[in-house]
Design goal:
This protein has 325 residues and is mainly α. α5 packs antiparallel against α7 and α6 runs parallel beside α14. The radius of gyration is 19 Å and the shape is globular. It is built from 14 helices and no strands. The longest helix has 35 residues. Helices cover 79% and strands 0% of the residues.
């Protein structure tokens, strides 16, 4: 309980709540989409640079099991939504699958928030752990689009083959994942330490606080959209982030026992599993599952899922790691 109270006073969550409050009060403050995308780009580029520099010095064999687990978790989250949310009354199957894909994919802003909390509390983690992002993100989006297309083709009685590569390509070209992969490549293949230490690292927390403010305002604005679809989406968005995160925590503990995966790394794995994509996921799903209702999956993610993942998930996984390890 003390950890939750401290988390509510942290800049990360305080700015998120502040954005929700001023939006509820009818503020005229508007922060453009281009600023939002630039901030996300800067944050993920910084995370990627740090990850790439540490991968350069790391034992790659240590990454194999966590990466495989990340793939399994991303696919598993979509399958869980297919047999739960998509089967509930008043929920269209394609909307349930798309929601599972978005929650199986990864939020760069939630990942950045978790890293700030871990660093502020001096909790060690493998610097390559954020590089698990694409191993969970891409399989989840691919699985959701494949399942949705198989559902449509089965309903319509067609046997057209679902093409996988265009889905993967679309995911890789997403702005958030592109920024992270670019940072990893630059950190791995070049020597960016000087610009990282003098520019990217000092700006990280300040940019994250502005991003949380924007996300709080966005969360409130999406509540109206969520009200127009089945209330099951709100229930799913409140419960799923914690269920997914706890499942990933269990897998992370297995990696800890087998390979020595650090407690901080286990927390990061749980955080990315409990997050829902806020940048690359929505456009990928709009293109891949055009019949799904964005108000359902984007509204569930932004208005409920992300606040739960940040406000409850991050302190929960850290407290659990302290208890277990």
């Amino acid at each position: 309980m003390s950890r939750f109270l401290i988390q509510f006073q942290s800049p990360t969550l305080a700015f998120l709540i502040g954005g929700i409050v001023i939006a509820a009060l009818g503020t005229r403050l508007v922060i453009s989409e281009s600023i939002y995308k630039f901030i996300v780009f800067m944050l993920l580029l910084r995370v990627g640079l740090e990850g790439g520099m540490s991968i350069r010095e790391a034992n790659l064999a240590e990454m194999i099991l966590p990466a495989l687990l990340a793939v399994m978790i991303g696919i598993g989250i979509v399958l869980i939504s297919r047999v739960t949310l998509a089967m509930l009354p008043a929920v269209r199957t394609e909307d349930g699958i798309a929601t599972g894909g978005l929650f199986g994919a990864v939020s760069g802003s939630t990942l950045a928030a978790a890293i700030v909390v871990l660093e502020s509390e001096a909790i060690d983690y493998e610097q390559w752990a954020p590089a698990l992002y694409p191993f969970m993100d891409i399989p989840a989006l691919v699985m959701a689009i494949v399942l949705a297309n198989l559902y449509f083709k089965g309903r319509e009685g067609t046997a057209e083959k679902v093409r996988i590569w265009p889905i993967i390509k679309e995911s890789l070209q997403g702005s958030a994942l592109s920024a992270l992969l670019l940072g990893i490549a630059l950190g791995l293949l070049t020597r960016p330490e000087s610009v990282y230490e003098s520019f990217y690292d000092p700006l990280f927390r300040g940019l994250l606080s502005v991003l949380m403010l924007i996300m709080g305002m966005e969360a409130y604005s999406r509540i109206q959209e969520l009200r127009r679809v089945a209330h099951w989406f709100a229930v799913y968005a409140a419960v799923a982030p914690l269920v997914h995160g706890l499942i990933a925590f269990g897998f992370g503990y297995l990696a800890h026992v087998l390979t020595g995966f650090s407690p901080g790394g286990v927390v990061i794995l749980a955080v990315i599993a409990g997050s829902s994509s806020d940048i690359s996921g929505p456009p990928t799903l709009r293109a891949g599952i055009p019949r799904a209702n964005p108000s359902a999956y984007v509204g569930a993610s932004t208005s409920v899922g992300t606040p739960v993942a940040i406000a409850v998930g991050i302190p929960l996984y850290i407290a659990l790691a302290e208890a277990v390890f």
